[in-house]
User: What shape does this take?
Amino acid sequence: MTNLVFFLAIPAALLLMLVLAGLRSTGEGAGSTALPGDAEYLVRLPERGLLDRCLAPEDVEFVAFLNSPPLLRLLLHERRRLALAWLHQTRREAARLYRLHIRSVRHAAGLRPAAEARLISAVGLFTIIYVLIVGTVWLYGPFRTRAFLHSLKVLAGVLLNLGGRIADSISPNWIPQVSTQ
Amino acid sequence: MRFFNLAMWWAGQVPLLCLGYRAVRRGLFREYPYFFGYLSSVLCATAVRIYLLPTTSQTYFVGFWISEFVSAVAGFGVTWEIYSHVLEPYRGVRRMARAVLGFLLVAVFAEATVGSSADRAGALVPATVELERNLRVVQALLLLAMTGLIVYYAIAIGRNIRFMLIGYGLYIGCAVIGLSMRAQWGEAFNAPWQSIQKLAWDVTAVIWCMGLWSYSGNPVPDTSLECDYDRISQNTIRALGRLRSHVTQSWRV
Assistant: This one.
């Protein structure tokens, strides 16, 4: 039965790809014949200050001081929405850069599979991080995500220190020596 | 039922004959020799099968499977035709395609070697259905990889090749599905399998007839758009790295 599923998955993927090819080929090439200029390669990052302002603890403290649970809920809901919008903007920028790359290199004679694989892995890594952060923000909200990431960083620092101290405390005499003679 | 089968058979042959006639008149044979070679092999196979009728005879059975196998092998010509026409002007993508297709073929052979060594010795000679299915699966994988590259790099393809690809992809997809089920459930699935096969072939023949009615070459890309690949690749990787660290750094207190 596993074999059958495998053999059915291949034609299913092929038919899906043909649909995509059919859809793309109709509008392909329009407006994308020229090579992109240098300005297009600039990374347009969403401002970090925007996120800092969105996650400012003062706002939460102020609303908490007003002692109004619906208002606090509204604030948290809005801040989550803003944080997700900020993240979506970074994803859009990554997608733009990737499309730009594809558009530029399809004519390149020097295209190398290894370099393309490296690029795909870079995109994959970005996607993993993006999905993890979006998932955490969506589930726990931006404030708790930031606190979680902060505690994670502190924990990593502690473990790093601990590892270093353990390594330092090992006396060279404890390590078996290999005779060179 | 007999009339339905006959109608389905003719529905597949008439568009092919029309296409053959148009190809002779318009000289399409010269443009797509492997594709029309495949079509000729299919028409020859049909003639052989008619000669070997009735379908219940042992000679027909042997002739049917031999002609099926020959058609499956000739099908690689269509894949080659698509590959050579679509990727001819894109040297870099062609290299990428060679790497991907080479990897796929090695993976298929490795899987076949491991599978046959784990199995009993008798399994080294697979049944005819399985042999044809395996050939079609290899073709499906090759087409999948090639279509993937066409979609990924948004390569422009002309009307002829687009319809050739869609038609053949559809036929191969249906053939793999039908043959897999036939291999799984045996003789009991014979009638539905033959119907699937015929229907897929009819649709494919109509698609080819529509798409190859007149010559429409592939768009020629502007070769002046050649770029410094290494520089662009490095720029993109660096930009993605910056974006990644920006996302992670921004969430730290």
